[in-house]
UniProtKB/TrEMBL annotation:
Keywords: Hydrolase. Gene3D superfamilies: alpha/beta hydrolase. GO terms for molecular function: hydrolase activity. GO terms for cellular component: membrane. Residues 7-19 have a biased composition (Pro residues). Residues 80-328 form the AB hydrolase-1 domain. This is Alpha/beta fold hydrolase. Residues 1-51 are annotated as: Disordered. It comes from Nakamurella alba. SUPFAM superfamilies: alpha/beta-Hydrolases (SSF53474).
Length: 361
């Protein structure tokens, strides 16, 4: 808590929550098959991202990167990042899967190079509808949806509202509701104070006081199970990208606005709740979690997977909130196996191993 009575925002200005105790035993719950090998070469975290372009959809500016100009052998894949992230969070995973599916990497409104929403109204449902409109414009037929954290919530809303657009669903540490009043839960309860009126200005000023370098290292400490995996060169590359974004007047309000939209969604009940939306999803679904997730408790992994009609689960030992960046090869093998299982009659592809994945290699 700051001296002005407002919690520090969830970056380096806010000391990373310790999170729940590490539950490595949860890897035994994994039942997701893995493809026999990584489909393609995994790019480095600091490699040049795929090219992108800005387009106006329904009067809103959206920036989308594309991994290759031509379609892959199967449906296209659309990747949706988490809170305070951007399309560059998918460089490694989308690159490894580029030969399997043409990848579209989206910057959500107010993030990356996309415009903020009209009147600063951040909404998970509006984000889902905007991405759906982009899919209808760019892709033919149903697509594979991949979402991390906040993006996981967005793609579930999309699958619920636009089921004709979805061939499969992959959720990486989705920011699912967790209203348990326990001392060792992953989410920091101080975040709830950001719902109070009058806190946006102070929170935004505290975010603005951070340098790009401090914010990059703060996000690494918050999101990675082992921040030492990130090299100095990779932190420098992240800081360069953040430095460009720091020039945007809506950068910090987008973080706070999106966080508020996420937390407001937790209070939604009945047929509009996350659980109700998840139960309507009928496509094959892969849920991935890390045992060192500081932001969303790994003990929610199995209950989350159980909400979906056709789900498989992969829990990775020692991994944090962004397994697509921390363990991209294993995640790519799991996603490739899911995608192959959706073809034809749904029988597993010969390249899929019969053994379940119980831990990160």
């Amino acid at each position: 808590m700051s001296s002005d009575g407002v919690p520090n925002p969830p970056t380096a200005a806010w000391p990373p929550p310790q999170g729940p105790a590490v539950h490595d035993e949860l890897v035994e719950l994994s039942d997701a098959p893995l493809a026999g090998e990584v489909p393609g070469t995994v790019p480095g975290m600091a490699d040049e991202p795929p090219p992108g372009e800005f387009e106006v959809i329904d009067g809103r500016g959206l920036y989308v990167r594309v991994t290759q100009p031509e379609p892959g052998p199967g449906p296209d894949a659309w990747y949706v990042h988490g809170l305070a992230g951007s399309s560059t969070n998918w460089i490694q995973l989308a690159g490894a899967l580029a030969g399997t599916a043409r990848g579209y990497l989206v910057d959500l409104p107010g993030h990356g190079r996309s415009d903020p929403p009209p009147r600063g109204r951040y909404s998970l449902v509006d984000d889902a509808d905007l991405v759906a409109a982009a899919i209808r414009r760019r892709s033919c037929g149903p697509v594979h949806l991949v979402g991390n954290s906040l993006g996981g919530m967005v793609v579930v809303a999309l699958a619920h509202r636009h089921p004709d657009l979805v061939a499969s669903l992959t959720l990486i540490s989705p920011a699912v509701p967790d209203l348990r009043m326990t001392a060792d839960r992953g989410a920091d309860p101080r975040l709830a104070l950001l719902l109070l009126p009058g806190t946006t200005g102070v929170a935004t000023r505290r975010l603005g006081a951070l340098s790009p370098e401090d914010r990059a290292r703060g996000m690494g400490a918050l999101c990675f199970g082992d921040p030492d995996l990130i090299t100095d060169a990779e932190y420098e590359a992240a800081a360069v990208e953040l430095g460009w974004r720091f020039g945007l007047p809506w950068l910090h309000t987008a973080t706070i606005g999106s966080l508020r939209a996420l937390m407001t969604s937790y209070l939604t009940a009945g047929r509009w709740s996350f659980a109700a939306a998840a139960r309507t999803v009928r496509v094959p679904t892969l849920v991935i979690w890390g045992t060192r997730d500081k932001l969303v408790d790994a003990r929610l992994a199995a209950p989350t997977a159980a909400l979906f009609a056709d789900a498989r689960l992969l829990v990775l030992r020692g991994v944090g909130h962004t397994s697509q960046m921390e363990e991209p090869a294993t995640v790519a093998r799991a996603v490739a196996a899911l995608w192959r299982s959706t073809g034809g009659t749904g029988a597993p592809h010969p390249g899929i191993t019969s053994a379940v994945a119980t831990s990160s290699p």
